[in-house]
Amino acid sequence: MQQLNYKNFGEGEPLFILHGLFGSLDNWQTLGKQWAKTHSVYLIDLPNHGKSYHTDSFSYDEMATAVADLANDLALDKVTILGHSMGGKTAMNFAVNYPAKLARLIVVDIAPKPYPPHHQQILDGLFSFDPAQLTSRKEADAIMSDKIDNVGVRMFLLKNLKRKDGGGFAWKMNLSMLSEAVNHVIDETAIPHPINVDTLFIRGGMSNYILEEDSYGINEKFPLSSIETIEGAGHWVHAEKPTELLELVNEFIA
Questions:
Q1: pLDDT for residue 1 is more than 80
Q2: Full-model pTM
Q3: Which residue among 81, 100, 124, 149 has its CA within the 20 to 30 Å range from the CA of 155?
Q4: In what order do the strands lie in the sheet with 6-9?
Q5: What would the mean pLDDT of 104-117 be, rounded to a whole number?
Q6: What is the distance between the terminal CA atoms of the chain, rounded to a whole angstrom?
Q7: Which DSSP letter does residue 209 get?
Q8: 235 catalytic residue (yes or no)
Q9: DSSP 3-state assignment of 68?
Q10: Other residues' Cβ atoms within 10 Å of the Cβ of residue 209
């Protein structure tokens, strides 16, 4: 059985951190090391991302199972899971399928609802060059800037490039499969019964991923949940307002 790639810092109760679409564990290293002062933090590359194995299809059930298998391999009875965006949907799926293994749940800027397609601009940027022909990341950034004007988003995406021994670059992530599956990434998360675990939803005040009208549905599905807003943050809460996110999570997991 293949195991997910992960990094572990600190000691104490286990805290799993799950990144979003096109992300990797590297996106969470700075915050992970802060939480490692009080917890045993596991930064995890989800399937088809970072240094984890690639598959032929996209499934939240499969990703949640891979996270549960990792907890079993590490002999961890219960884990707290923090998931951002796609990682948040994976964490909610874990809560449905493996409730006995979940100590607490933290969902960052995503709701269990379906979302309209919204990744085309990013995909256009990712497919605007052949990584094998690149001489540098700077070259990739210049080409990608025609499609994606936000430099922070470009830097985030370009972390997926790795140098090849013979020259040029390759994608770490399974881009071809993920691009085909992108409309499944935005699917509704099926919550067939209330999840009775302490849950914190954190939304960016400038993000439209969790709206005011979503609060009723969230509280119905997660009766022990609260929703906190970090003002001035968009969807990339951890990159835009790390200190505020750190404090909210510390308060919740203390």
A1: no
A2: 0.96
A3: 81
A4: 6-9, 39-44, 13-18, 79-84, 102-108, 199-204, 225-230
A5: 97
A6: 34
A7: S
A8: yes
A9: helix
A10: 19
Q: In this structure, what token pair is assigned to residue 188? A: 């509704």
Helix pair 151-158, 137-144: axis angle to 10 deg: 140
Q: Give residue 23's pLDDT.
A: 96
Q: How far apart are CA 224 and CA 102, in angstroms?
A: 13
Token pair in block for residue 203: 């939304």
Q: What is the mean pLDDT of the chain?
A: 96
For residues 46-75, give the mean pLDDT. 97
Sketch out the chain's domains with CATH numbers.
Answer: 6-115+186-253 (3.40.50.1820), 120-182 (no CATH)
Tokens of 125: 């940027």
**Active-site residue, from 85, 207, 225, 238:** 85
Identify the active-site residue in 19, 39, 49, 235. 235
Q: Is 90 exceeded by the pLDDT of residue 28?
A: yes
E-assigned strands of the chain?
6-9, 13-18, 39-44, 79-84, 102-108, 161-163, 169-171, 199-204, 225-230
Closest alpha carbon to 225 in 253, 186, 197, 188: 197
What whole-number distance in Å separates Cα of residue 30 and Cα of residue 185? 26
pLDDT at 152 over 90: no
Mean pLDDT on 68-86: 98
Using the 8-state DSSP alphabet, how is residue 188 labeled?
P
Mean pLDDT of 19-38: 97
CA 87, CA 108: separation in Å to the nearest integer?
Answer: 9
CA atoms 145, 208, 60, 4: torsion sign: positive
* φ, ψ dihedrals at 136, nearest 5°: -160, 165
